[in-house]
Amino acid sequence: MVLAERSGETCRLRGVLAQPGGGRGRIVVVSGPAGSGRTALLAEALDGLAPPLALLSAQCSRAEQNLPLGVVRQLFAAAPLGPGPARRVAELLRRGADGADPRTGEETAHMSPEDAAVAEELWAVVAGIAARTPVGIVVDDIGHADARSLAYLLYFVRRSRTVRTAMVFVEPDETLPVCPLFQDELHQRTDVEYIRLSLLSHPGISEILGARLGGLNTPGLTEECAEVTGGNPLLVHAFATDVESGPPAAADGRGAAVGDAFRQAVTLCLRRSGAEALEAARVLALLGDRSSAALLGRALDVPPRTADRLLALLRGTGLAADGGLRHPAVRAAVLARTPDAVRTGLEARVARVLYDSGAPSPVVASYLTAAPGPLDVADERWTWAVPVLRDAAELAAAENRVPQAAAHLELAHRSASGGCDRAAILVDLARLQRRSSPRAALRRLDPVVRHLATSRFDAAHAAVMVRCLLQDGRHAEARELLRRLDGTGSGRRDPAAAPKRLLGLWLAVSYPGVAREFSADAAPWQSTRGPESDGDALRWRATRLLASVLGGGGDERGIHEAEQALRIYHVTEHTLEPLTLALSALVYADRAATASAWCSTLLAESGLVHAPAWRAQLDSLAAQAALRQGMLPDAERHAAAALSGMTAGDWGAEIGTPLATAVLTHLAAGRPDDAGTLLQRPVPAEMHDGRGGLHYRHARGRYCLHTSRPHAALRDFLDCGVLMQRWRMDAPGLVPWRSGAAQALARIGETVRARRLVAEELDMLRAGPPGRSYGIALRTLAAVSRPERRPDILREAADVLKACGDRYELAAALVDATDAHETLGESKRARYAARRARGAAESCGAHGLLDRLRPPTGAQAGSEPVLPGGAELSGAESKVAGLAAMGYSNRDIGRKLHITVSTVEQHLTRVYRKLNVTRRQDLPAPDTRLPAALL
Questions:
Q1: Is pLDDT of 932 > 60?
Q2: Of 219, 698, 812, 849, whose CB has the highest number of CB atoms within 10 Å?
Q3: How many C-beta neighbours within 10 Å does residue 55 have?
Q4: Cis peptide upstream of residue 682 (ω within 30 degrees of 0)
Q5: Are strands 192-196 and 26-32 parallel, antiparallel or unpaired?
């Protein structure tokens, strides 16, 4: 081993050993911290010493500390003795070991006569050797010597002044003396020389690295080595070994070149420092940046002075600095060599100490979760653990550290006592798991379901379970829980009252088919009593706003509160539901643009990366909002993300909403086949107990209408109407079932009934400001009105739809206006409307509408539609001619096109003249661009 900054100490020690003459003995004590090179210094001093010198040496070991006279035996084993003296020494050592006095070597000057006699004879042997040649007595690591040997050595020291001996005792800093009297007497002597080894300076470190690494050493590497090792020679050499062995490993995240050699050296240094120092280092490694002498003492359950001594000892080795371990690399090395069982026990002790010192819950919980099994909360020392774990889990979940939150809750669940506590923790775990898989979360809650069904239960937990069961389609179990909950007290002071009111309100807006079974006459949006719990205030306001919108209300104040909540809160387990309810209220209140902007903001939150189920729910709302703005590409993208973000099983009974949005988007984009494919997916029957079922029925009705099945469409629309009226949520903003039914009725010739339904819808909408729903109703009214009234109605509809920002419905209204003007023969106005319609349809990707407007091949953009043969006919003339060519009578044509028989006859007269024909049989085949509903 290369020695640096030790030349002076080596010369002094070698001088003592080389010149023990002069008729008097010399004593040297070499001390220093573990790893400072005491043994290496001794070996360097002894190397090359020329005789004459009779060297008696011993190496002490902690393993032999209980072996009586073990060190003295080593000394005399190397003595130059003849056969006779050797046998005599062996006999003396046997007598000394067998006659052990338990007081010998302790803090007393007492020595038994037998021990004194043996020691005297042994010293006589040493003196006899010294008479012939100088004697060197060298004891390394004397701090680990057995107590009897120390007593004998002390006897020798007292008699060494007149004998040619050189005594060298290598004394470690790290151990408490077995025989304090030995050290006390040495320190009282004025002829004892002390050699103290210190840690290396930067030049010393550079000298070792230069000798070991040659050109690889740099000032930067020296600085790094000093920072990691503190100048401990043992650690410096290990550092150099790791650099020699290959590229440095950044084990501590700061680029420290440490590896196996360094970790082994740290362990060796600590083991040499003693069991107490090793345990102290492990505690400091666990405490990390929170280390202090006070916490160390509490964790080790030792007095403050002992903690200070241990910390000072570690600072002396260079492993520690200030109140903790020097460097993260040292900390990593200590923990890497700590057995799991030992580490677990220390972590539990550190957790308790940190808890008592007021450390934050996440810090304490990080130590508790290292326990391999449940904590004994029956022991009063651990009663605090479960609340701390739950609090830490909540904070971790809020910061999107899902694995840590789950680990805390798992341990809390294993450790909790009592069914209610365990059920509460399982509910928290399920909330956490709902981020990724609602169905998997519910399966985790199955024990809670059984517990709630047979035992006393918390109303808040029951409310959570009802929500989960309904979403998963397990409505029978949800109804059973509701019956049990309905039977509990409902007084104002009853703890179940607030959760029941909130659950009732949520059921009314989310699963009204279930809610009606328990409160058939309730109008929850009219309730002014909210829950007493402040934590439920946001949920209550959002749910009540949605109920108000669905009930035909929804004032500006409520809308403003919803926007304020969206502006203030981030998405968490506790805020996801109220925020999505507020977004739904905005969508149904014809505030799609506002809802779309907030959906984009929430989806941009980084925390949603670890919550695919949350993203899917927000994507579903974003798709709804985009569709109601006529932004078909965005609607399609968000709907696809919603359906792929969660499986059908995870969507459960709520799949109706994203599925319906995707179907309507495909229809608007001119892809009815894709819409039909989506409608072929199996859906749970329980879906029709909730709002999702209404959306699904409405979308299916629109598909049937698009594919010329008006009777099936009418059935779906009317079913929506029956349910919405029964559920007291007959709001056109939710589902415009009257407009859909009116269009279906018009297709089957029941114009009067269709007009009555549209009038009802318009009367409902006139109470508020004109919005998207009003514009759609006006467009439907135009379709069932007389031809001469249609342009004016459609003009008003277009103005309303343009103001509310729905580009698709605006384009559809302009296409209808094009047809209306053509029907009246107003070609110039028709062309103008067509140009506007084409621009609106292209801007939103409505290819189905563009197909209705696209001129035939060879015609110029904006020209009148023509029949094969090249004759120019208006759009209305083309429709009449096509239907006439198919054999429809004038009355049938008028019914299909909603025009009078007289108007049909006028159109046919112009068609005959333009095509130069005189009868129906001579009309060409119908234009393939005619709407399928007319064929």
A1: no
A2: 812
A3: 18
A4: no
A5: parallel
Q: What is the dihedral of CA 704, 705, 706, 708, to 10 degrees?
A: 90
**What is the structure's pLDDT at 927?**
55
What's the pLDDT score for residue 274?
84
pLDDT tens per residue across span 839-859: 999 988 898 888 888 653 344
For 167-178, how does the pLDDT look when each residue is reduced to its tens digit (9 = 90+)?
A: 999 988 766 565
Q: How many Å apart are CA 137 and CA 157, to the nearest integer? A: 11
**The predicted structure's pLDDT at residue 858:** 40
Q: What distance lies between CA 658 and its chain's CA centroid?
A: 26
Question: Chain-centre distance of CA 533, in angstroms?
Answer: 28
- Helix/strand/coil percentages in the chain, nearest 5: 65, 5, 30
Contact 703, 667 (CB under 8 A): yes
Query: What's at 209, amino acid-wise?
Result: L
- Segment holding 334, helix H or strand E: helix 328-336
Judge residue 191's burial from the number of C-beta atoms within 10 Å of its C-beta, 0-12 exposed, 13-18 middle, 19 or more buried: exposed
Which of 39, 37, 49 has the alpha carbon at shortest distance from 11?
49
Alpha-carbon distance 475 to 518, whole Å? 14
**Nearest by Cα to 436 from 641, 572, 613:** 613
Higher-pLDDT residue of 816, 446: 816
Task: State the DSSP H helix or E strand holding residue 324, giving kind and residue range, or none if neither.
Answer: strand 324-325
pLDDT digits (tens, 9 = 90+) for 30-70: 988 888 888 889 888 888 676 778 889 999 988 888 888 99
For 750-765, what is the mean pLDDT? 93
* CB atoms near residue 127 (< 10 Å): 17
pLDDT per residue as tens digits for the range 647-695: 999 999 999 999 999 999 999 999 999 999 999 999 999 999 999 999 9
Token code pair at residue 25: 């003995």
Contact at 8 Å (CB) between 42 and 168? yes
Is the pLDDT at 643 greater than 90? The verdict is: yes
Angstrom distance (rounded) from CA 642 to CA 648? 10
* pLDDT, position 101: 55
**126 within 8 A of 135, measured Cβ to Cβ:** yes
At residue 195, φ and ψ (nearest 5 deg) are: -120, 115
Q: At what angle do helices 691-706 and 737-747 cross, to 10 degrees?
A: 20
Instruction: Tell me the CA end-to-end span of the chain in Å, nearest whole number.
Output: 101
Which pLDDT belongs to residue 4?
86
pTM (two decimals): 0.70
Residue with tokens 């030790």: 6
Q: pLDDT tens digits for 452-487? A: 666 555 677 778 888 888 988 889 888 888 887 776
Residues, the chain: 935
User: What's the gap between Cα 635 and its chain centre?
Assistant: 29
Burial state string for 489-520 with b = 16 or more CB within 10 A and e = fewer than 16? eeeeeeebbbbbbbbbbbbbbbbbbbbbebee
Structure tokens at 540: 């209550």
C-beta separation of 284 from 320 below 8 A: yes
Nearest to 118 by CA among 142, 145, 89, 138: 89
Amino acid at the residue 619: D
Contact by Cβ (8 Å): 228, 219: no
Going along 48-179, which residue ranges are E strands? Answer: 54-59, 135-140, 165-172
Question: What pLDDT is attached to residue 866?
Answer: 42
DSSP state of 67: S
Q: Following CA atoms 876, 880, 882, 888 in sequence, which dihedral angle do they give, to the nearest 10 degrees?
A: 160
Q: Please report the pLDDT score of residue 675 as a whole number.
A: 95
CA distance linking residue 841 with residue 719, whole number of Å: 31
User: Cα(761)–Cα(528) distance, rounded to whole angstroms?
Assistant: 28
